[in-house]
């Protein structure tokens, strides 16, 4: 009977493994999947893109017998199944779940502190890294053999998951524990542009000396953190990387799940590096609507633009949005051809320059003292110069020249850490 039970368990495990792998082709109800994403091998045959998480045979045996911590959110899926559920079913001993901004389930609004809890499905303790803690404590690390990091990034400096990555790497390095990264494509991986963050403007929305759009996957970024000595005292974190299969930086990639509550469409994901800088202005970017980061506007632009929208309080997205309950006039970018952004390989500064010129009270355009936005404009863009240049009417080409040689130096340094073409 014991032999029959053992055989049954093996068959059940293999069945679950096959199910998880097959589910990688399923679509999420939130965003379109990647059934059409493929590359050509040397012999011309099509090869399907597979995230690190979807390649279960590449890491499952390595995790067996280890006490595992896992840094995840709602984007951490194997196929269409939450990673925690899949790994627990496959016999992985997950001891602690760590959640970043927006929480483990991705339901908290931007900037909201998230409390510790327990995963209601598995009962595993879920520790917030966007509340009292920014990184796992020594006591929490002592109970682990390894930490898995699997979170979808969108490639922008002010998107806080790269900060979470750095904080967790620091804890791993101090505790001499390994971090396994299940890599995912960067949907804006083709875009490397913007001013380099000035040291005195470092903050929670900008920790590293990188441009606005960094053009790296999470695993590549981790390698850069190690290689450039960005951890305190130049600590080094031991990394084990499961690469994305059949991926290149210039490949279009549609996310299978929302990366955060206000990036709820592929259009918003692609526009985010270009639009988020408006959070340091008097303009709404659509927070408080169901089309965030695809529209721009303000009440004072009435008569300048015909398109309108009215921000409302939306639980889990934006409870107190800028210009709440007030009609805003501005730009509708929901149907903007984002392929133009990839073709240009540049951040779109035209919208910022246009909206500043159109705004009637220019002295208030960058004045966010009365707003609950992410932060001031200088911290968002990483430099004090851009605001001054916009106000002075400096040309776009002159603005871009002022980003050098920092941007070119970054691009050269970046090459050392690339895992994909």
Automatic annotation (TrEMBL):
Keyword RNA-binding: no
Keyword terms, alphabetized: Signal
Domain Peptidoglycan beta-N-acetylmuramidase NamZ C-terminal residue range list: 270-420
Domain Peptidoglycan beta-N-acetylmuramidase NamZ N-terminal positions: 68-266
UniProt feature coiled coil, ranges: none
Leader sequence segment: 1-18
InterPro entries: NamZ, NamZ_C, NamZ_N
Name listed for the protein in its UniProt record: Uncharacterized protein YbbC (DUF1343 family)
Provenance organism: Dyadobacter arcticus
């Amino acid at each position: 009977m014991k032999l029959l039970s053992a055989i049954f368990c093996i068959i059940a495990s293999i069945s679950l493994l096959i199910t998880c792998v097959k589910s990688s082709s399923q679509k999420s109800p939130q965003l379109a999947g990647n059934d059409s994403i493929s590359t050509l091998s040397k012999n011309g045959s099509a090869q399907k893109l597979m995230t690190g998480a979807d390649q279960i045979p590449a890491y499952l045996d390595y995790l067996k017998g280890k006490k595992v911590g896992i840094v995840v959110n709602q984007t951490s899926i194997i196929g269409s199944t939450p990673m925690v559920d899949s790994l627990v079913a496959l016999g992985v001993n997950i001891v602690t779940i760590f959640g970043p901004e927006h929480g483990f389930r991705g339901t908290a609004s931007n900037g909201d502190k998230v409390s510790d809890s327990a995963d209601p499905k598995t009962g595993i303790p879920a520790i917030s890294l966007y509340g009292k803690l920014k990184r796992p404590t020594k006591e929490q690390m002592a109970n682990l053999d390894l930490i898995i990091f699997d979170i979808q990034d969108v490639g922008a400096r002010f998107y806080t998951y790269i900060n979470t990555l750095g904080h967790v790497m620091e804890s791993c390095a101090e505790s001499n524990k390994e971090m396994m990264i299940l890599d995912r494509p960067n949907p804006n991986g083709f875009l490397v542009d913007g001013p380099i963050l000035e040291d005195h403007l470092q903050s929670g929305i900008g920790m590293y000396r990188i441009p606005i759009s960094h053009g790296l996957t999470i695993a590549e970024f981790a390698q850069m953190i190690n290689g450039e000595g960005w951890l305190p005292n130049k600590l080094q974190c031991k990394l084990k990387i499961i690469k994305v299969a059949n991926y290149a930086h210039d490949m279009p990639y549609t996310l299978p799940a929302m990366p955060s509550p206000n990036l709820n469409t592929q259009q918003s994901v692609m526009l985010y590096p270009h639009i988020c800088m408006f959070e340091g202005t008097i303009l709404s970017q659509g927070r408080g609507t169901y089309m965030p980061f695809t529209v721009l506007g303000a009440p004072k632009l009435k008569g300048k633009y015909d398109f309108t929208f009215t921000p409302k309080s939306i639980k889990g997205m934006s409870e107190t949005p800028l210009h709440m309950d007030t009609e805003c006039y501005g730009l509708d970018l929901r149907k903007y051809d984002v392929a133009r952004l990839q073709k240009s390989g540049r951040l779109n500064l035209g919208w910022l320059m246009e909206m500043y010129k159109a705004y009637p009270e220019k002295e208030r355009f960058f004045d966010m003292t009365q707003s609950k936005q992410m932060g001031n404009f200088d911290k968002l863009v990483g430099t004090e110069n851009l605001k001054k240049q916009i106000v002075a009417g400096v040309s776009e080409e002159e603005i871009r020249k002022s980003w050098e040689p920092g941007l070119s130096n970054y691009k050269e340094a970046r090459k050392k850490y690339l895992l994909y073409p």
